[in-house]
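Structure ticket #2291
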Amino acid sequence: MKWMRFRIRTNEESEDIIVAAMEDIGLYGAQIEDNVPLTAADKEQMFIDAPELEPDEVSLVEKGAAYLSFFLEIDDDNMLFVTLPEDEEGKITKCTPEEMTENIRQKLSEMRSYADIGDGSISVDVTEDIDWINNWKQYFHKFYIDDILVIPSWEKESTEDEDKAKMVLHIDPGTAFGTGMHETTQLCIRMLKKYVTKDTELLDVGTGSGVLSILSLMFGAKHAVGTDLDKCAVPAVKENMENNGISADKFEMMIGNIIDDKEVQDRVGFDRYDIVVANILANVLVPLTPVIMSHLKSGGIYITSGIIDTKEKEVKKAHLDAGLEILEIHHQGDWVSITSRKN
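Resolution: structure written out below.
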């Protein structure tokens, strides 16, 4: 079996948003090449040996640039096997490499209207048999966020975990984003833990695998609504809710772009939410913030993360320009969260 690789040149800030967008056309999971150094925690969680480069070693990736590689199985007739997100039964279709390359090019073109994705050039080649979709599971192990144990379905709780963990989150990201491992997610979780009450109506913009919504409901929130651009989020959220004992009436999922889709905005509802949380890249948070004002109740809390530290001032300005009162700014690694209130 062989795989065709589609390699996109972009920038470090746009990695996550491009990976999410590519799922719309049947590209799941990505191999990422960049210059972002692994932290000690990253290395421990990934169970790999990743020594730092010597000073005289030169990276093959330019500073600030990133390469995302997506893989599709290829048959003897040079056709690609593709499963599209709308195919709920997992039906596999086929397309040519030229058709997929054009699909990628069109998707990147759409993204340029709301994000700086850098170069966006595409290269195509063939590689040997590797299980790219499932190999990541060997790197995702149980871990803690303060006193919360996050554990995938293929691992077991130990006696030590039972004594140490005050809360257990069972999470399998599947093909949607979100394990709770990333610094930006952890920053949001700590703010949610602080501000969620038993009366909280929560809106989770870019919900992914549902980590933030599910934990908010476990913290005691009354109800949550999640929006996402990726249809793969729907089954991922459903499975993770069931794994954590969250009843279906507690969470409502919507697919669409709340920034410019009036139908999504109307379905989400206005002046309705005690808390809005958005763990998205800075270049999406800036246009999102003024839109969110109409969905927040007076006195409502707006939690944002996904902000690389070089974009902190830009996102902070968006909060202030929207008339929000900034309550807290926190840092973890190179990432920032900004929490504000609508007065």
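Closing remark: Residues 97-111 form the longest helix (15 residues).
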